[in-house]
Write a structure and sequence with these properties.
By secondary structure, the chain is an alpha/beta fold. It is built from 10 helices and 11 strands. A 6-stranded parallel sheet has the order 7-6-8-9-10-11, with helices on both faces. Strand 4, helix 4 and strand 5 form a beta-alpha-beta unit.
């Protein structure tokens, strides 16, 4: 069988990528863009049959990129998010796009719970006070998580795991997702936002969810936890709410990453900031690598893919040359 041309876009050294793809042997021929920019990606796409995506979304396959990739048969995104990729354009071209759904569910859910606890128990303030020579046993007035109403926006693997963990802490959990469920915990979005003591955002970014959460509509003293994408939350409204009635926020994601030096969030109290690492654990990375390799092997061997997100055929069809099973 003629090797498949695999174009790798992740921000990793080429030799490391070659090492990671060793199990594919001579079934693929690896290439990377000449430079890490859009022009170099577009130059490399005409020969690409498989694209291993860029988890940073810096190099994404929009409609123009899809049109330039006449041989493209499959895109494997090494993340849950598929930001920037034009899913309809890929589907129209007969190109399945798969993600790694579920690999970071435990990691992100644990971050959401630990971040909520850190803000509620005022751990950041307590640590800073002790380091400065203080001993504020009475002044901080932390609060317990147990007994809180927790609302979860998004109910994929991450949202479901968040629900399990928050219930273990004695919280009353409700959730909203774009697909209505026959479940007593399923609640209209407006109610989840308005009535939750802790609002956890773990829904995928799309044109339908961009700016979905307006923190000004949350209840007095509530806490917002965002581990989805920064653009899902109206950041200007969040800053306004943090300057007023909102009790606090724990943010792992932002509209612009890294966070600009002049971003108003940096000057606000009651905010825990994290550099988009909720899903970054050794265990989650191991699961991600396995999911990526399993799908790449399935693609070149002519077996069904898993986690296809753009409704394209789960069997990869080579557009030119040998068939997958040849």
């Amino acid at each position: 069988m003629t090797p498949w041309n695999l174009l790798a876009l992740p921000p990793l050294p080429e030799e490391l990528l070659r090492g990671l793809l060793t199990p594919l042997g001579d079934r693929v021929r690896l290439s990377v863009p000449a430079r890490r920019d859009r022009a170099a990606m577009l130059d490399a796409l005409p020969e690409a049959e498989i694209v291993l995506g860029d988890w940073s979304a810096e190099l994404a396959l929009d409609a123009e990129a899809v049109a330039a990739a006449s041989r493209l048969a499959f895109v494997q995104q090494p993340s849950v998010g598929v930001d920037g990729h034009d899913l309809p354009a890929l589907a129209a071209a007969g190109v399945p796009l798969a993600n790694t759904a579920g690999v970071s569910a435990v990691a992100v859910a644990e971050w959401c719970v630990s971040a909520a606890l850190a803000v509620r128990r005022k751990l950041r303030e307590a640590d800073a006070a002790v380091r400065a020579g203080g001993w504020p046993q009475q002044e901080l007035q932390p609060s317990e998580l147990s007994g809180s109403k927790v609302g979860i926006v998004g109910h994929g693997p991450i949202g479901a795991e968040c629900g399990r963990l928050f219930r273990a802490f004695g919280c009353q959990v409700s959730y909203w997702t774009r697909t209505p469920r026959e479940d007593p915990a399923y609640t209209p979005l407006e109610t989840v936002v308005a009535e939750s003591d802790v609002l956890v955002v773990v829904i995928a970014l799309s044109e339908q969810t961009r700016g979905l959460i307006d923190a000004r509509r949350m209840k007095q003293g509530a806490l917002l936890v965002n581990a989805a994408r920064g653009e899902v939350v109206d950041q200007a409204a969040l800053v306004e709410a943090l300057g007023g009635h909102l009790g606090g926020a724990a943010l792992d994601v932002f509209a612009t990453e890294p966070l600009p030096a002049d971003d108003p969030l940096l000057g606000l109290d009651r905010v825990l900031l994290s550099p988009h690492i909720a899903g970054v654990t050794g265990q989650a990375t191991g699961r991600l690598l396995k999911a990526v390799m399993d799908n790449l092997e399935a693609a070149v061997d002519g077996r069904p893919l898993v986690n296809v997100v753009n409704r394209a055929d789960a069997i990869v069809t080579r557009k030119f040359g040998d068939s997958p099973a040849a």
